[in-house]
Amino acid sequence: MPGAVPQPRRAAREGSDRARVRRGRDGGPGAPRSLHILADPDILGVATAFAPLGELTLLPGRDWSPAVVRDRDALLVRSVTRIDGRLLEGSRVRFVGSATAGTDHVDRDWLAAHGVGFAHAPGSNAPSVVDYVLSVLSVFAGEDGRALADYTVGVVGCGAVGGRLVARLGALGVPCLRNDPPLARTGAGTGFVTIEELLARADVVTLHVPLTTAGTDATAGLLHAGRLGTMRRGATLINAARGGVVDEHALGRALAAGRLRAALDCWEDEPGIASELLERVTIGTPHIAGYALDGKLAATRMLHTALCSAFGREDPWPLAALAPLVPPVPERTLAPGPADACVRALVLACYDVRRDAAALAAGVNAPRAERAVLFDRLRRDYPARREFAAIPVRIGPAGDGSLHRQIAGAGFTVVD
Predict the structure, then answer these.
(1) Cα 198 from Cα 205, distance rounded (Å)
(2) Phi then psi for 370, rounded to 5 degrees?
(3) How far apart are CA 393 and CA 382, in angstroms?
(4) What is the pLDDT of residue 13?
(5) How many angstroms separate the CA atoms of 157 and 210, rounded?
(6) Residue 210 confidence (pLDDT)
(7) N or C: which end of the chain has fewer CB within 10 A?
(8) How far apart, in whole angstroms, are the C-alpha atoms of residue 377 and residue 398?
(9) How far is CA 313 from CA 36, 97, 309, in A?
(10) CB-CB contact of 335 with 396 (8 Å)
(11) What is the pLDDT of residue 154?
């Protein structure tokens, strides 16, 4: 295999952690007024995209307070900021945009009851999360001396992420079990199984559900001690959903006993995650599965569209100014060989999850406060990563159609 795809330098932060960016000009009579926007600086492209709309202040999301948000018209947040009445009561905020697929950090009922518009970015990071899971599977397949198709993978949650994952695994010949009760009730497809059947049969269980606490399909504690106990001995658990979906104490006991193996990207009590669990997982990463640049910028664009609509603005998306944040990736050439080995080698050459795991593992013995700082820093300073779809791959002349299909099925762009 050739060397890794050259990675673009990490996009420069567009302002200091606490900065006021240029002020948009108010127009004449009847023109939309200049907005007062508060945003997390770690939203990719936020200054370029939103400063033209008004006065934009950048402040890390963990530093927000009622006094800081009181006189803002709009807030642009990430998952580190809890949005609820305690933060917004008495403010003039009329719109909240979250550059995330999940919304468990947002009290949407409170926003709706108080007439505050809300938008988020469902699906924006889905390809990136699927890339992450394929990297994890490629690592484990190498360690186990197995082909990807030798595993039966149970996908819990078959929405934007899980649905894409099932499609890619299917293209690679990997048998899949699907569990998604809400989706099954809509009649959208057949072949769903109960979670009990999935846990009993799957070699790998990967979670892609939102964190919800109410209703028939609540996912908080979905994998409790009893369900973890029904998983096959030696099975692998991947959690790239939310930490609260898994009982971490029960999982820790199963890992300590050698019953299971785990790759965790999401944790309870982020950023001060449990050192005992971090020490026991095979792969532990700082909630970065969806951190490819392409998905981040897609989320920013979704929020730009939503905010402009909420305030009756027609400001164009500054495509030319933001294009350098996701530059074209150089083409790579793949030497033909056995399809499974080629796929796994290409996946790990383009994104090896073990690098992210090693960075987080460096803080396993640090005090909780220092571990929390490391967790946030690794997310804030995350190196540039691209979705597999952004990586053009040319297969050598001896490559057959099957290899082309496998590489494309894994999510890469095959060029002739």
Answers:
(1) 8
(2) -70, -35
(3) 25
(4) 46
(5) 8
(6) 94
(7) C
(8) 45
(9) 14, 15, 6
(10) yes
(11) 98
Cross-strand bridge partners of residue 177: 154
Architecture of domain 332-353+368-415: 2-Layer Sandwich (3.30)
Helix (H, G, I), strand (E, B) or coil at 36: strand
d(CA 135, CA 240): 12
- Cα 260 to chain centroid distance, Å, stands at 24
Please report, for residues 81, 109, 215, 256, the alpha-carbon distance to residue 116 in angstroms, rounded to integers and kept in the order given.
16, 10, 24, 46
Residue 149: per-residue pLDDT: 97
The residue annotated as part of the active site, out of 287, 304, 332, 386, is: 287
Burial class of residue 107 (count of CB atoms within 10 Å of its CB; 0-12, 13-18, 19+): buried
196 in catalytic set:
no
Tokens 């996946």 label which residue? 347
Choice among 197, 270, 313, 404 that is catalytic:
270
Predicted local confidence at residue 33, as pLDDT: 64
* Domains 19-124+292-317 and 332-353+368-415 belong to one CATH topology: no
60 preceded by a cis bond (ω within 30 of 0): no
The CATH-assigned architecture of domain 19-124+292-317 is 3-Layer(aba) Sandwich (3.40)
Buried/exposed 150-180: b ≥16 CB within 10 Å, e otherwise: ebbbbbbbbbbbbbbbbebbeebebebbbbb
CA 104, CA 291: separation in Å to the nearest integer?
A: 18
pTM score of the predicted model: 0.90
> For residues 23 and 34, is the Cβ–Cβ distance under 8 A?
yes
C-alpha gyration radius of the chain: 22
Decide if 143 is catalytic: no
270 is catalytic: yes
Domain ranges for the chain: 19-124+292-317, 126-284, 332-353+368-415
- Please identify which residue in the block is written with the tokens 């939503």: 306
What are the mean pLDDT values of the chain's consecutive 10-residue runs (416 residues total)?
38 50 46 83 97 96 96 96 97 97 94 97 96 98 97 97 97 98 88 97 98 94 97 98 96 98 97 96 98 97 97 95 94 91 97 98 96 96 97 82 92 94
Q: Per DSSP, what are the bridge partners of residue 283?
A: 263
| Other Cβ atoms closer than 10 A to 11 | 17
CA distance 240 to 374: 19
In this structure, are strands 74-77 and 95-98 parallel, antiparallel, or unpaired? parallel
CA 176 to chain centre: 21
Asked if 56 and 26 touch (Cβ cutoff 8 Å), the reply is no
Catalytic residue from among 242, 280, 371, 385: 242
